[in-house]
Amino acid sequence: MADANINNFISGDFLFELGAEELPSGQIKNIADYFSSKLKESLDEAQIIFATTVVYYTPRRITILIRDINLEVQDKEVEIKGPPEKITRAPDGKFTPAALGFLKKNNGEEKDAFFKDNYLFIKQSIKGQNAQAVLEKSLPEILKNTPGVRFMRWANSEAKFARPPQWMCAILADKVLDFELENLRSSNKSYGHRFLGPEEFTVKDFDQYVKQLEKQGVTLDQGLRKEKIVREANALAKSIGAETIYDDALLDEISLITENPSPVLCDFDSRFLQIPECVLTTVMIQHQRYIPLKRDGKLIEQFITISNNPLEKARHNIKVGNEKVIVPRFKDAEFFVHEDNKISLDERFVKLDRLNFLKGSMQQKAKRLEKISEYIASELEKTLSGNPMIESKLELDDIKRAALLAKADLSTNLVFEFTELQGEIGGIYAAKQGFNKNIQESISEHYLPRFAGDKHPQNIGGKIIAIADKVDNIVCSFALGKIPSGSADPFALRRQANGLLEIIIESRLIMDIEKLIKFTCELQEKDFGNGDSITKIKGRGEDRQEVQVSELTWQGTDKAVIDFIESRLEFVFEQRHKNKDINKSVLSKGSALKELNKRHMTIHFLASISAQAQFEKLVEGVNRLINICKGKEISQEIKPELFETDYEKEFYEVSKKLNSCKDQNLNYDTVYNPELLFSAADAISKFFDNVLVNSEEEKIRLNRQALVAYANNTFKDLADFSLIK
Amino acid sequence: MQPYDTEKGASTMNPATFLRVLENKEWNMACIEPCRRPTDGRYAENPNRLQHYFQYQVIMQPNPHNSQDLYLDSLKAIGIDVLAHDIRFVEDNWESPTLGAWGCGWEVWLDGMEITQFTYFQQAGGIEIKPVAVELTYGLERIAMYLQKVDSVFDLLWHEHNGKQVFYKDIYKRNEFEQSTYNFEISDVDRLSRLYKEYSAEAQLCLDKFMAIPAFDYVLKCSHCFNLLDARGAISKDERQNFILEIRSLAEKTAKLYTSALGTVNKAR
After folding, report:
1. Cβ proximity of A714 and A654 under 8 Å
2. What is the distance in angstroms between the Cα of B70 and the nearest Cα belonging to chain A?
């Protein structure tokens, strides 16, 4: 209820700070937002008005500030609406049982009841609630019921929380709230930075609280901490002529594990720059939360660590300490590279028979990847030359080689230690062994995109193998019965399906995905057959029985995979074109996987003209066609000689033009053009305005119906316009 | 207390931790514990990676409200000025899949280096721990490297008497080299697999005879065998999962027996 006119009330600010042992950085914001929304809910429920809420958080505290809470207790008159008058008032004027029931339900008496606007109402006065009492009652409940992953108990606690709470500071205007959680009691005391200013202090109001925290070494506002990190890290990098490497996730995390972020510049031995850059940055960012530095686009032998201690006397220790930490990690990586280099990728391919895939060995999988990639390549070959999105040439031998070696890096020490770098490591080793650029890139990129919004493979080989890998994973999971349901998707098949579709859409690859799925199913069936016989339990209680089933099912798997991947299409297109109606109108006729590029081009085309004024007219016109044809079977041929007006002729001409577009091979540019479509819209509206379809003369009527049906079918091929609003 | 005399990957596997916290009573202990992690060996070539090292293990059950302050005081007591370093509690939820145990807590970082694992124990052997125990596991070599300001663990001064000095390398360097070589290159996979089976059968025998503590000894033996096989790269991903499940199942049965009436009857003797 942040909208009320607060000037009429005596109001005060509410400040709540939960102090805790260092909270997990990934959960702090969720907890803070939960506190804030639950507190708002409690106040709203009690009909207590307030102005704004703000949340602040550090690793050791979550602070909620609610401004201008109404402190006055006010009773309120409300009118509650009941059933209609006609069923609540009997002909003799008395209340019917329905009316009495309504009164009883609301604890109302007959004297409070009245009729207004043909409805029964009762007047009620609601006892106002005291804000302090409401907060004291709701806070312990909110704290105890905070949802979160991997929450813990502590000492003898019944409650669970992210980490043990240490103190609770809660003040409303000038009053200290009094409530308990486990063995903690609320107060008006807070504490500063763990080392810089741990002393207890008394909180009077928000401004004094923020200032006092600052004095005791804590910057409360997470946004300010993040800004400080960026500003100071960049300045430090600039001072040595370098640039920082970071992403937002890293900055967010650092700002959530420091109360007083202070950058320190550190060095390492430049010999470690021999190690692949992705390994170095992964160690620095993922393992140590350091900010790596680059100069002229290349990593340099320095990095920035963000400490939580700005004191001058700590600077040297922090520098030396962090430098010492990175050495064994880099040495480890160096050792792994050294060991890995003893075995070539070809030898590693042979070793893949000892590594398991979902079913069968990784070697089998690699061989399948080769075949599926070859299949995709041959499908694409005919249409690839005109594709504006593809720069590299399709070299079949390179693709087959890369597919076969794509999984070879799984047996390297580096990938064992840095799983997230699989593929990329393979690409680096391929380069070292002198494989050409196509092969390097294809191996390196074939896991992309790894998450929503991740980059796509650039090399055509990388794209093809990425598609092959994903379709192979999905098919095998489905055959094994490991199918995503609800929120459970342990093999991230939805993400993989999205990735596969995104690559095909983005790169405008012209291929029949249904055929690809069927091809993959056949290959796997050849590789695995029905697998082992496994025992499954069916039914419960007395119906419970053990049945023997085969491990893999091929009956209907292709269809299930097609449906599954098709079901991801709307989501994928929504990420590209916000206009959901248009996406749906083009996808709704089914079988989109057979001609995905065509659908994509159509969606793209319709979305591009949807903002123009004539588009609405077009939608309206086509919907008139749809409505007239609804439920009718029209098989009559059009006889142009029966046209009586120019409107019919014009409408027919433009429809024919449109219809011829449909048969043209739709590749990299839509053959529809806006002028043609809008002239059709014009022709439709002129036709309906001037021509009566239901002519009294039967042959004229049938001929006009045939014309409408013809146009309708033509548009149907483009999209289902009835879905566009 | 004194350490336990069987190979273990972490001091949590000392029965004075793993089994005692299941008793759900007040229990406070501390001891130095030698640990072995075959895969971490680096032939004495890495300045702080070892396949054999020492932990200082502290258990406080129930955890005191000021556990963190007590811990920081212990650092001060051994000469670490908390204002002259960057000390951080970095989220780390400890989990031992082979022991069916997990907890919430942190790695404690001293200027970026992990020096202690700080865990609020929630479960061991699949059994809830109530009241919650806090486990502090200090990495002794790393802390000593700080105090002595040396870059390599092998340069740590172990003892000094009448001007004669004994260093870490004098005691453990050859050990690291030979054990790494054994773990990675020499151990006999077939024999270790057989040993594993024998140990697991012995654990089961103890369980069948309601002897939880000897059973636990053999669970530890199984775990070490598994680690040795792992270091040889002899375990595929699927097999790995099977090993883990099997050892966990033994650990859970042991924990259950230890806390059951049949197990505790031995206490009265």
Report:
1. no
2. 13
